[in-house]
Every structure is written in structure tokens, then in C-alpha cells.
Amino acid sequence: MECCLSLYIHVPFCAGRCGYCDFYSTPVGSFSGFREIRERFVERVLADVRSELEKVDFVPTIYVGGGTPSVLGESLVPLLEGLGRLLPNEPLEFTVEANPESADEIFFRTCRSNNVTRVSLGVQTLFEKSRKAVNRLGNVASVLESLDRAERFFPHAFSVDLIAGLPFQDAAIMRSDVEQVLAFEPAHVSLYSLTLTEGTHLEKNMRKNAASFQKIDDLWLLGKDLLEQAGYTAYEVSNFSLKGKESLHNKRYWSMENWAGMGPSASGTMIDDETGTGIRLTVKSDATLYLKKTEQDVEYLDKDTLIKESLFMGFRSLDGPDEALFLKRFRKPITTLIPRTIAMWQDKGLFEQNRTALTKEGLLFLNRFLAEVFEEISG
């Protein structure tokens, strides 16, 4: 029996696609009779959850993401109520994502009354010109209203996403975005650098100006500094929280603990601690197909692959990889795999002396560190 398993549910619908988005989602306007579509989607998800939980006796965390879960409207009620009936326990953390334009009073009441412990709001920016440039729906007024609701319904228990490097952003706008968000006292802020999806109009425009990429880095560093000055700890590359308010669900990803994925494009990874091997199941990225049946791609993960993934994910966190779990699965400590890289980065003052983790400064050079890690592993 798989005794402990987190759940990720991917809602593949959104009100409209943003210019930078590379997640699988389909605008609700693409469907005829969306009310029926969303009802069928909820039924399919709950059937998949029911099947998965036959092997589980404890679910530590649930994350409902997307897409935009808040566009489910009334259908969010049967989804959350259904999960409540199926779960073997009350999760330690239960997160639902939302975009401000669809996170109305009813959405927050529904979450609050169905054991959701955490709401994550996709704010991105509070500068109207930047929002319009990347096709964000709603307006700044609607974002502020949603932040006010989040503060009322989930005081010190909600998260906000911000993006650094959007069109028309400058240092003053970045500072304003952070300060306005922090006025609502979120427990957690995810600060991402703008990622350019190949082939999008946004990507083509920004590729014309190499200075755009330096601007992205500079704005992200400014946002990081502002958050840390306000008492938020960068406990992972892009995630900041008040003490004790880290995302438990995401920490399970970074520790490579087991989770299952439901909904189109969702993936799950299950690792056998005895053999150090695993399996990854990814639902096909097709919402129409998913309404009929659940089809998954299967990837078998050998020990070498999982060792690299465990290091890749684990070193993203300020705590570093879970050393005890790594040793249990792979029968060797991390320090014996990459002694040369660790010693070099300790000499630079970028790797902790008393634990297997990068320092706060070291995390800023994560990609370079990981390149050296994988080079040493490959011999």
C-alpha cells in the first residue's frame, strides 16, 4: 500500500490565455455549453481521485491548480465537497489557485467552507499597462478587491504570485507592485522572472532587445530585496514566506516525495524507496479526451535518473535535498557523490559548511552549481 501521497489537480480551463503562459489550458469560450463541460470534468476528476486513494491511507497536501480553478464557478462546490468525502484524512495543507477577475466573494466563501487552508492568487502585477500587454483579464481595481477578500477570508494564509520583467515594468513599478501586495499581509509570495514561451508574440518582441533580459534579472533582484527587507525568507529560488508559512505541497515536490496528478497535463511521480526507481504518469494534454476517459503516458525512472532529479529539485530549496530520504532510496549519501563540487562551492562561501545546501547567496547561482553537479556525477 502507498501510505502517503499528495494530490495535484489540474483544471484545464481559463478565462483567456496570458501572453507568457506555457501551462496547458483552454479558454472557456472555446467550449460550447461550458456549464456541462465543467460538471463532467469534476465527475472525471473525482473518479480518478477515488481510484487513486484506494491505495492510500494519508494525504498530506492537495493543490488545485491550472489553468484557473476559479473559473469552475458553481462546479467548484461539488469538486471540493467530493474531495472532502473521498479523503482518508483532513490534509495538512489544501491550496486552490485563483485569478483575481474570477475570485469573487462566492469563490472565497466556497473555499473557506470546504476545508481549503490556502488560496494562491495570480496577481502578477498591479500596473495596468503591463497587465494589458500580456493579456491579463480584469483590471487593477478587481485585483485589489480580490486581495482584500483574500485578507478577510484567509488572513495570513494566502499566497500571491508576482512576475518581474513584464513589458513596461521598471524599478518604480516593481517596487509599487511589492509594496501594494504586502499591504494585504500575505503569508507567502512567489516571485517569478518572466519566462518567454517560444513562438508567442511576447517572446518575438522581447528577443529583439537583448537588454530586456538584463532588465528581467535586475527587477527580480529588486523584488527579492524588497521581500526580504519586509521579513519574507527566500526558502526556495522563487518562493518567499513568513516564518512557518512555506508551501508544504511544493516542499514535497522539491523533496521528491510521492504525488499523483489528475486532470489534463497533470503528472505524478511515485518512487519505490527500496529500489530507488520509480514511475511517472502524465495525463494527456487534451481536455476533450479527458472528459471521455483518462489516458496517461508512462515513464519508467531508473536510479540514475532519479538521483539527478532529486538533486535538481532538492538544491532549489534553502534546506537542500532531504538527505535522509536520499540515503534511504539510493543507499549513498549526497556528499560522496559530489565531494569536489561541494568543496569548491564551500570555498566560495556559497555552500553551507554544516549541511548539504546552498547558501542564500549560492541559490542565485543555482544553474551554474547544478551544471557542475551533473558534470561530476557523469564523471
Radius of gyration: 21 Å
> Could you state the order of secondary-structure elements as H and E?
EEEHEHEHEHHEHEHHEEHEEEHEHHHHH
Number of strands: 14
The level-1 CATH class of the largest domain: Alpha Beta
What is the multimeric organization of the chains shown? single chain
CATH names the topology of the largest domain as pyruvate-formate lyase- activating enzyme
Major sheet: size, sense and barrel closure? 9 strands, mixed
Write down the domain tally.
Answer: 2
Shape: globular
Amino-to-carboxy terminus distance: 37 Å
- Hey, roughly how much beta strand do the residues contain? 15-25%
Within the largest sheet, what's the order of strands?
9-10-8-7-6-5-4-1-11
Instruction: Extract low-pLDDT stretches.
Output: none
- Under CATH, the homologous superfamily of the largest domain reads tm_1862 like domain
Overall pLDDT metric: 91
**How many H/I helices?**
15
User: Share of helix among residues?
Assistant: 40-55%
Tell me the structural class.
alpha/beta
Molecular structure report:
There is one protein chain. The protein is of the alpha/beta class. The chain folds into two domains: 6-251, tm_1862 like domain (pyruvate-formate lyase- activating enzyme); 322-379, no CATH class. It has 15 helices and 14 strands. The protein has helices at 34-52, 76-86, 105-112, 128-133, 140-153, 171-182, 201-207, 211-229, 248-254, 287-292, 303-314, 323-330, 334-337, 339-347, 366-378, and strands at 6-11, 13-14, 26-27, 61-66, 93-98, 118-124, 158-164, 188-193, 233-236, 239-241, 259-262, 267-272, 277-283, 296-301. The strands form three sheets. The protein has a nine-stranded mixed sheet with strand order 9-10-8-7-6-5-4-1-11, sandwiched between helices. Strands 12-13-14 form a three-stranded antiparallel sheet. The chain has a two-stranded parallel ribbon with strand order 2-3. Strand 7 (158-164), helix 6 (171-182) and strand 8 form a beta-alpha-beta unit. The longest helix is centred in the N-terminal third of the chain and has 19 residues, at 34-52. The chain is globular, with a radius of gyration of 21 Å. The protein starts with 5 loop residues before the first strand and ends with a helix.
